[in-house]
Write a structure and sequence with these properties.
Elements lengths: L3 E4 L19 E4 L5 E4 L5 E5 L27 E8 L5 E7 L4 E3 L6 E3 L2 E12 L7 E9 L2 E9 L4 E6 L4 E6 L5 E8 L8 E11 L11 H8 L3 E4 L4 E7 L5 E7 L9 E2 L2 E7 L4 E7 L3 E4 L2 E7 L8 E6 L4 E4 L3
Parallel strand pairs: 1-2
Antiparallel strand pairs: 2-3, 3-4, 5-6, 6-7, 6-9, 7-15, 8-9, 9-14, 10-11, 10-15, 12-13, 13-14, 16-25, 17-18, 17-24, 18-23, 19-25, 20-21, 20-24, 22-23
Length: about 325
């Protein structure tokens, strides 16, 4: 069976469209706004796809943790003044992870974007260059409704807040820094602090918002771990060796995703279990860290008597955090 495609001649008014007058079995037609039609065996016209009801596959989300689901720091709620909360999101205000609710806080807000006070959470796109410049669309599902805002992004230093009714979209680009910041903010309400529930946030290239397709949690987590990894206490994390001088122990920790840049390690106390059966207690201190494909290497300095020994790292009562965040 041959397939023949017919296209409606675009009318002068984009809203003045109609299905084809007739179709033969094996023919496919498209109207001026993208609806698709075919004909059955009796040559009856059947609408197959609606340009609105069955929209195109969505563009990829350029924000990691746009679902706001990854929370490696593990708190139920965050009250921050320019600190990271859930993965990828810097907060000045009050955010409840359980309900995904952002609330204005009288002690954690800032006068910015021409507003007297705003609490907001923002997400960075880093290392942008001229190949990234163009029009982008920021969208979010807030209080059960999908909102979107399109704007041009380039190298110009600029910041603004876009009033969406119950909340603001925010954008920031600072001079001399190749980073774009995108956010959602709330201001004081007349009857109480402004508050909104956020289901997801999406940034995509182009002038229109396309369907939001959530990632699997493990895929989202793996993307987040390019920027931040948290390990529980009392864990065996990796293995390595003590050099021939006994001045350094190098431990390799396997990671599923190479970190964005050399991370900063948190202050920890740990033990190194050596191949000869001895144990080295180390810390508290923050070991230097280097990222490698599939690994993060930690360096523990000291004066060790266990020369040229293999060792494995066990965290004690402290958690290890590796941060390559902005």
């Amino acid at each position: 069976m041959a397939v023949k495609i017919k296209r409606e001649t675009p009318p002068s008014n984009i809203y003045d469209y109609s299905p084809p007058d007739s179709l033969q079995y094996g023919q496919i037609a498209q109207d001026a706004v993208g609806n698709i039609y075919s004909a059955d065996r009796s040559n009856n016209i059947v609408k197959q796809m609606s340009s609105t009801a069955n929209a195109q596959v969505g563009n990829p989300n350029l924000l990691y943790n746009g679902s706001l689901s990854v929370n490696q720091r593990g708190q139920t709620s965050y009250l921050q003044s320019w600190g990271y909360s859930i993965d990828g999101w810097v907060l000045i205000g009050d955010f409840n992870y359980s309900t995904k609710t952002l609330t204005f806080d009288a002690s954690n807000n800032i006068a910015r974007f021409g507003l007297d006070a705003i609490s907001y959470m923002r997400h960075a796109i880093v290392d942008v260059d001229s190949s990234d410049f163009g029009r982008y669309t920021l969208s979010a599902k807030v209080d059960g409704v999908v909102y979107s805002k399109s704007f041009y992004l380039g190298n110009t230093s600029y910041s603004d807040a876009y009033d969406m009714g119950s909340f603001y979209f925010t954008y920031e680009k600072y001079s001399g820094v190749s980073t774009w910041w995108f956010g959602i903010g709330v201001v004081p309400g007349e009857a109480g602090p402004g508050s909104v529930s956020i289901e997801w946030v999406k940034l995509e290239k182009g002038t229109q918002a396309t369907n939001y397709t959530p990632k699997k949690y493990l895929d989202e987590l793996n993307e987040c771990r390019k920027y931040y990894i948290k390990y529980p206490s009392w864990q065996m994390l990796g293995s390595g060796y003590i050099n021939w001088e006994g001045k350094q122990a190098h431990v390799l920790i396997p990671v599923g995703q190479q970190m964005r840049t050399n991370p900063t390690a948190s202050t920890i106390s740990c033990e190194l279990y050596c191949g000869n059966g001895s144990i080295i207690s180390w810390g508290p201190g923050a070991p230097p860290a280097i990222t490698r494909p599939g690994w993060v290497s930690l360096q523990f300095d000291g004066s060790f008597t266990q020369l040229k020994q293999t060792c494995c790292l066990v965290t004690k009562g402290t958690q290890l955090e590796l941060s390559a965040e902005i």
